[in-house]
Amino acid sequence: MALTTTANFKAYAGVTGSDDDNLIAALIVRAQSAIEKHCRRIFDATDYREFHDGDGSSEIILHNFPIISVNMIGVGRQDAFQIINTSSDAYHAFVSVSATEIQLVVQGGTNDDDTSLTLADYGTMTLLIAAIEALAKGWGVLSPAAAYSVWAASELLPTGKGLRCLGEYAAVQIPGEPEADFVTDTTSGIVKLFGRFSPGFENIITRYRAGYETGEIPADLEQICIDLVNVYYQAKDINASLQSERIGDYQYTNRAESAQDGSLPGGITDRLDLWRTRV
Fold first, then answer.
1. How many structural domains are present in the chain?
2. pLDDT of the chain along its 279 residues, tens only?
3. How far is CA 13 from CA 31, 129, 223, in A?
4. What distance in Å separates the CA atoms of residue 211 and residue 208, rounded to the nearest whole number?
5. 117 within 8 A of 137, measured Cβ to Cβ
6. Residue 1 within a domain
7. CB-based contacts of 14, cutoff 8 Å, min separation 6
8. Going by C-beta distance under 8 Å and a sequence separation of 6 or more, which residues neighbour residue 105?
């Protein structure tokens, strides 16, 4: 979803005809990229999973806003299931979880293999475990407690590194039991727990959706984008090497300098500061 449209820009800038439509569309993409980089956030409605440090307070501030929905807040971590590889002639085996995949690697021997399974393809841990065991290659899994077997495989937490599991069990984890007693300020992104978050390093795991759905872009944000596109559009006809000139009482300064060097005009950045993420 773009912050503005070619038609809206042309109406504002008084551009007629369709000769520059492709150029304008490209400039909108570039302007939005620059705006999102400055604001350190994505404005399109997007699903997020974030890790926050608990400090004993009752509040956390989510990185992205406005909040559309908070789907889960879990405090702490718990083992989803334990996995082992029993290959007798391998020299190493490990499991690694990323945001989207679980990677299972056996190095050496007859079972030498490197397989990745996409977490989103498995609606429950039970289905994921069945897929792992179907690989054979020496893989075995201790089934989780019944309460965890129905969790979606996408809830598995990234390991950060490979967990050694040759001849020994390694535990892959999910967030702690979801909290139910909290309220959310959707505008600011502040989540307040009826209680206190336990202190810890990245022990608060949140999953939520934030941003603007199609047709919901605020008018003042769209205007900032239109103004930046106009800077880029006008710069195409300006000699970038000419910074200023004076003829008698007339003085000209190249205001499109920012469009040439990649920085944003001061007036644009001042207006965008309201939209910058707080983290």
1. 3
2. 789 999 999 999 999 999 999 999 999 999 999 999 999 989 999 999 999 999 999 999 999 889 999 999 999 999 999 999 999 999 999 999 999 999 999 999 999 999 999 999 999 999 999 999 999 999 999 988 888 899 999 999 999 889 999 999 999 999 998 999 999 999 989 999 999 999 999 999 999 999 999 889 999 999 999 999 999 999 887 655 545 545 455 444 554 444 444 578 878 999 998 888 865
3. 15, 58, 11
4. 10
5. no
6. no
7. none
8. 92, 93, 94, 95, 96, 113, 114, 115, 162
Encoded tokens for 227: 């103004």
How far is the first Cα of the chain from the last one, in angstroms, to the nearest whole number? 24
CB burial string 55-64: b at 16+ within 10 A, e below: eeeeebebbb
Query: In terms of DSSP H, where are the helices of the chain?
Result: 6-13, 21-39, 125-134, 146-149, 219-235, 257-261, 266-272
What is the helix (H) or strand (E) element at residue 84, kind and residue range? strand 77-85
**Whether 89 and 162 share a structural domain:** yes
Prior bond of 144 cis (ω within 30°) = no
Asked if 64 contacts 42 with a C-beta cutoff of 8 angstroms, the reply is yes
Residue 92 CA, distance from chain mean position: 33
Token pair in block for residue 213: 């759905």
Asked if residue 96 and residue 160 are part of one domain, the reply reads yes
How far apart (Å, rounded) are the C-alpha atoms in residues 188 and 209?
14
Q: Are residues 84 and 201 in the same domain?
A: no
Residues 144, 108 share a domain:
yes
If you compute the radius of gyration of the chain from its CA atoms, what whole number of angstroms results? 26
71 and 183 share one domain: yes
Residue 139: give the domain boundaries: 77-175
